[in-house]
Design goal:
Blueprint lengths: L1 H10 L4 H13 L5 H7 L5 H10 L7 H15 L5 H16 L6 H16 L4 E4 L1 H18 L2 E4 L6 H14 L3 E2 L4 E2 L9 E2 L1 H5 L2 E5 L3 H9 L3 E5 L6 H5 L2 E3 L3 H15 L4 H9 L3 H15 L1
Parallel strand pairs: 1-2, 1-6, 2-3, 6-7, 7-8
Antiparallel strand pairs: 4-5
The structure holds adenosine-5'-triphosphate and magnesium ion.
Length: 294
Amino acid sequence: MELLEEEIIEKYQNDALQIREAIEAYQKGEYLTIDEYINKGKDNKGKDNKRKNMKISKSHPRYESLKTREKLVAGFKEGYVAINGLLAQGRGECFDYLLNEKTQNFALEAERAAVALLLLSKSPVISVNGNVAALCSREICKLAKILKCSVETNLFYWTKEREEIIEKILKKIYDNILTEKTKKIPNMDSKRADVSEYFYNADVVLVPLEDGDRAGALVKMGKKVIAIDLNPMSHTSQNATISIADNIVRAIPNMITFAMAMKNLSRDELEEIVKSFNNKKNLMDAINFIKGKI
Ligand code: ATP
Ligand code: MG
């Protein structure tokens, strides 16, 4: 609670009343009502409402984080985010806290190198799971469109129903969604091994919030694997070709900006960007940043 209070004080430096109100709200645990206010939000009037609305204003110190949680909870209620996906988000949040909940320079460098690699790719694919779909379907599809990528679902906790819901969400936004899974990733025995022929042959894959063993299996197939994972020590980050230690809700919009700025660069220029990027060093920078924070 102490750290949280410090954050609130920093945020509302000049407004003692807001500081007090925000801290009181935290202490009462009222911030949980954000669900009601972000998703429905319009059904209140009067004094109480005024106070609660203050809590979800964009200047709220935990606004982004709470909004992100709400998107996952909504995805869970709609039947396509696995309950374990909520745990994964919690795991990520812990590392995000240690990264100051900001895109640090090392992440920005990795995002730039990842975009260069995707632009150089002949057959790039972006893999989407339930959390990714809930947090940034629209942004993923926008990035895919600029980079001319295919998009394919892959679920750790697979059910036909969840897969179909996510495919339906994606198909509404983007027309290049791969759904015919006729191939298997070698040396994997779960449903996660099932991929389309196009994915099977892809040279570069972007796998946000991926599990370590699948990331490793994809590298073993000879693919260049780009991971987005807040934990620079995870098996996924350690296995990937390019590891982006950033929150997906910031990483994908950053990559969209890079993609728009870089899409007309020559192959030589793109290759130079990829060549000058050192994933091991970048991961060490992320780990050292976290060490410094502790
Ligand atoms: P690994 O198997 O790779 O060692 P893990 O078992 O620690 O990873 P999982 O539970 O498999 O982790 O997957 C969750 C991973 O996704 C965590 O490493 C977490 O940091 C990351 N993560 C969760 N939410 C986000 C997010 N919003 N943005 C980026 N990364 C996230
Ligand atoms: Mg794991």
